[in-house]
Amino acid sequence: MKNIKSYVNQHKDRFINELIELLKMPSVSADSAFNKDILNTADAVKIALEKAGCDTVEICKTPGNPIVYGEKIIDKKLPTILVYGHYDVQPADPIELWDSPPFEPIIKKTKIHPDGAIFARGACDDKGQMYMHVKALEYMITNKQLPCNVKFMIEGEEEIGSVSLAWFVERNQEKLANDIILISDTGMISNSQPSITTGLRGLSYVEVEVTGPNRDLHSGLYGGAVANPINILTKMIASLHDENNHITIPGFYDKVADLSSEERAEMAKAPFSLDAYKKALDIEEVYGEKGYTTNERNSIRPTLDVNGIWGGYTGEGAKTVIASKAHAKISMRLVPNQDWQEITELFKNHFEKIAPKSVKVKVTPHHGGQGYVTPIDTIGYKAASKAYQESFGVAPIPQRSGGSIPIVALFEKELKSKTILMGFGLDSDAIHSPNEHFGVFNYLKGIETIPLFYKYFTEMS
Ligand code: BES
Ligand code: MN
Ligand code: MN
Predict the structure, then answer these.
(1) Residues, beta carbon < 5 Å, ion ligand 2
(2) pTM of the model
(3) Considering 117, 137, 283, 337, which has the largest number of Cβ atoms within 10 A of its Cβ?
């Protein structure tokens, strides 16, 4: 596929400008103030797929945000690739920590991205990575290089748990029938060492509320005599890890699939510099579960983290008060074969049990999902590996990621097909953080690599 390189080179300015237009749309799914922008973004994705050459594109209504579905069927006897991505983005806040406005994309050079990177919310997660597939399709159709059938399913609720997508998939199994699902919504090791994501962690997300007295109290008149919900909550949270940073919830590790020492040795071969890792985050030391390396802690081991905690007086100055309530949002990243609903139940029971009688505790489950591991002895993996090898000139390494895309396990259950995670982002691209960006090199390399996957997957099928 010689001319994909020259096609990308010839059209790269337009490819970048089109992505910039898409990134200007603030499609934040978590905040209903952006509902109109969600709908506008779905329309923009529909138009982009039509222009790229899909035969039919529809905006599919759901109980929540719409799903954009498009397809190009060239021959029913040929394999079908289902591309999944998401057009929704994380909220931009804290907005004051951005060096440039989150929805006014600009290109800046960085140490890691000497060719420049596009800075905007959603640049990497996932508009930039999703749009690589649209441009790869444009190339294949325009140049009569599309070797198989393709279906696109781009959703608008990934960042809030894909509830409507689950609803849609359950109702459209025939429409979505495919031979492989292809997703670019993960990362790779570095621009000189590509990797293919072979695992995602599961997730259980809960909110807890601790209630003490029935109203806020003067901390002098009542202090010391009644339970302070914030003191109690922080103590309860602290007790969820022991001195080895092991999670203390009974039964939490029962189903964890441990890796063999061979598998761990294989994992340890991936290039990684602990010094560079610490430097990039400005930390003296890493921290985590005893007996595991940093790369193991953030991929093959489960975790429990407080994502937010609030209560009492946080305004300017001092107010002497014992708050009636304290709250926290807690996420647990899970690994095979932990079941997210079971873990949620274990958490709830344990958290209610460790609360002293002087407070009431409420645990509210949010969303969750199962983890996922992809085998590497499949034609899907082999085709992806060959594609990276050809476009990067380096063989990709399989690597399990710590992030979650809960819908992937549901795809396997409902559609009976495997997923290939061809991500082109880097951990340093600051997804979900201020100053999110996506390397121009990564964006263009992605567009270049995707048609190679189509070619090899079709050949091998
Ligand atoms: N694209 C990410 C997940 C990801 C990023 C996986 C990098 C692997 C490497 C996705 O958009 C995401 O943020 N998922 C959420 C879970 C979801 C249920 C809100 C996550 O992992 O926190
Ligand atoms: Mn994503
Ligand atoms: Mn995300």
Answers:
(1) 125-126, 185
(2) 0.94
(3) 117
- Which of 84, 185, 196, 307 has most ligand 1 atoms within 8 Å of its beta carbon, as the pocket-test mutant? 185
To test ligand 1's pocket by mutation, which of 372, 405, 438 has the most ligand atoms within 8 angstroms of CB? 405
CA atoms of 402 and 209, how far apart (whole Å): 27
Ligand closest to CA 162: 1
Pocket residue to mutate for ligand 1, from 159, 189, 300, 367, most atoms within 8 A of Cβ? 159
Each residue's pLDDT, cut to its tens digit, for the chain (461 residues) gives 669 999 999 999 999 999 999 999 999 999 999 999 999 999 999 999 999 999 999 999 999 999 999 999 999 999 999 999 999 999 999 999 999 999 999 999 999 999 999 999 999 999 999 999 999 999 999 999 999 999 999 999 999 999 999 999 999 999 999 999 999 999 999 999 999 999 999 999 999 999 999 999 999 999 999 999 999 999 999 999 999 999 999 999 999 999 999 999 999 999 999 999 999 999 999 999 999 999 999 999 999 999 999 999 999 999 999 999 999 999 999 999 999 999 999 999 999 999 999 999 999 999 899 999 998 999 999 999 999 999 999 999 999 999 999 999 999 999 999 999 999 999 999 999 999 999 999 999 999 999 999 999 999 99
Ligand 1 atom with the smallest distance to the CA of 406 is 18
Whether ligand 1 lies within 6 angstroms of the CB of 125 is answered as: yes
For atom 6 of ligand 1, the residue with the nearest CA is: 403
Conformational region of residue 446, where left means phi above 0, alpha means psi within -120 to 50, and beta covers everything else: alpha
- Give the Cα separation of 125 and 203 in Å (integer): 18
Strands (E) in 279-396, as ranges, are: 303-311, 321-322, 325-334, 360-369, 372-373
Beta bridge partners of residue 71, listed in sequence order: 56, 151
Cis, bond preceding 75 (omega within 30 deg of 0): no
Cβ of 404 below 6 Å from ligand 1: yes
By the 8 A CB rule, do 160 and 88 touch? Answer: yes
